[in-house]
Amino acid sequence: MFIYKRETYESTWIIPNFVLRVEDLSHPGASIFFDCVKPKEALKLATITLVLRSFNGMAYTFGTHETKEINFSLDWIKSSEARAQDEILGVLAHEVVHCYQYNAKDTCPGGLIEGIADFVRLHAGFAPQHRRPRAAEKWDAGYDATAYFLDWIKKRCGEGTIRRLNGYMKDSKYGVELFEKVAGECVSSLYTLYCEHLEQAGKIPHA
């Protein structure tokens, strides 16, 4: 087992130590990870415990308000070898968002939680190449479907809109008025306009 620790430094943000734990250095995914990522530069916005180990799936994050742990599958890294660096940094960006985003006192729809995380991944430049804007059955279908919807809202309402959306969920429970506060319209109306926009732009209307 390999363990890497990074010390904290002076900052206006409270930044804990970064701990990287690799449970199987002989796994091919571990070699790919270290070929693509320098531990000191892997997480620029947060410092948390990152565990690299073999398991089914991609990654998940858990913890308390003070400590967070990201578990990242070495098997997933191995399966993504063709575009390993972008995939690793994209997954890390997504999971680190979960360490800092608000969830409206545990009332936020899960699809919005995942959509905001993928929105950040999209704007970090690490969205998977096969993902495109699409009209899912629901606006909060999550991940890239919701991320591109949020991106459209940002372009419509201005820079910082999604940041404000997240900020409103710090101290308040989720409600339909949330989108009206940040975007001026209810989310159902916004999503109807978004789907119309996709059809007019020749995008895939449903997925």
What does this structure look like?
The protein is an alpha/beta fold and 207 residues long. Helices cover 45% and strands 13% of the residues. The chain contains 9 helices and 5 strands; from the N terminus they run E-E-H-H-E-E-E-H-H-H-H-H-H-H. It has helices at residues 28-36, 39-42, 74-79, 84-100, 110-123, 143-157, 161-168, 177-183, 187-200, and strands at 2-6, 18-22, 49-53, 59-63, 68-73. A 5-stranded mixed β-sheet has the order 1-2-3-5-4. Helix 4 (84-100) packs across helix 5 (110-123) and helix 7 (161-168) packs antiparallel against helix 8. The longest helix is centred in the middle third of the chain and has 17 residues, at 84-100. The chain is globular and about 50 Å long. The N and C termini lie far apart (42 Å). The model is unreliable at 42-46 (pLDDT under 50).
Short description:
With 207 residues, the chain is an alpha/beta fold.
Helix-strand pattern = EEHHEEEHHHHHHH
The residue ranges in which pLDDT falls below 50 over 5 or more consecutive positions are: 42-46
**Fraction of helical residues:** 40-55%
Strand order of the largest sheet: 1-2-3-5-4
Distance from N terminus to C terminus (CA atoms, Å) equals: 42 Å
Count all strands and give the number.
Answer: 5
Please, what is the average pLDDT?
Answer: 84
Structural class: alpha/beta
Q: Please report the number of helical segments.
A: 9
For this structure, the quaternary state is single chain
Radius of gyration: 18 Å
- Strand % is 5-15%
Main sheet makeup: 5 strands, mixed
What general form does the structure show?
A: globular
